[in-house]
Amino acid sequence: MKYTVGSLFLPKTLYRNVSEYEFQPYLYRGSIPMAWRNFNKYRNTKTEVDGIVFDSKKEAARYNELKRLESMGEIKDLKRQVRYELLPEQREPDSIGKRGAVKNGKIIERECVYFADFVYTRTEDGKTVVEDTKGMRTKDYILKRKMMLYFYGIRITEI
């Protein structure tokens, strides 16, 4: 008998057929092999510091470091998850409804936004720094980084 994707206890993340011989040990022992466990895509671990949940341990550690620098007076105005709109949403033209009210056009393309992990001001020169903690540079991130430089003139500091 073949066990396929989604049958019995096999998760849908398994992309091949498994023979009964391969599946037998896991069926009776109750253990799931490492390849079948559900992980985050980039294996990051959510971490909580000061009641704030961070996407990774690295980001939480950087937050602690920046809070220390802020208490020492080296930086000021520390902000988290600052939103930058790179491209606005694209809509069809507005129309006038049956009763004369203006109806907003349908959204053709959603807006493109970038959320910076940390934004702060250095006290020594007054320069605003946009910082992002990266474990893995994705294609989306690289594109958004280039758009931040082009539209806002901001170079993102990667940690």
Set out the fold topology.
Elements: E1 2-3, E2 18-19, H1 20-29, E3 47-49, E4 52-54, H2 57-72, E5 75-87, E6 90-91, E7 95-96, E8 102-103, E9 107-109, E10 112-122, E11 128-132, H3 139-152, E12 156-158
Parallel strand pairs: 11-12
Antiparallel strand pairs: 1-2, 3-4, 5-10, 6-9, 7-8, 10-11
Features:
elongated; 2 domains; 159 residues; alpha+beta; two-stranded antiparallel sheet; 4-stranded mixed β-sheet; single chain
In short:
25% of the residues lie in helices and 32% in strands.
Q: What does this 3D model show about the protein?
A:
It is a single chain. This protein is of the alpha+beta class. It folds into two domains: 2-36, no CATH class; 47-158, no CATH class. The protein is built from three helices and twelve strands.
H-E order: EEHEEHEEEEEEEHE
Query: What's the structural domain tally?
Result: 2
Number of strands: 12
> How many H/I helical runs?
3
Radius of gyration: 24 Å
Give the strand content. Answer: 25-35%
**Order of strands in the sheet with the most strands?**
5-10-11-12
Amount of helix: 25-40%
Distance between the termini: 50 Å
Mean of all residue-level pLDDT scores: 83
Largest sheet: 4 strands, mixed
> How is the quaternary structure best described?
single chain
Q: Quick one: overall form?
A: elongated
Helix-strand category? alpha+beta
> Uncertain regions: pLDDT < 50 for 5+ in a row?
1-8
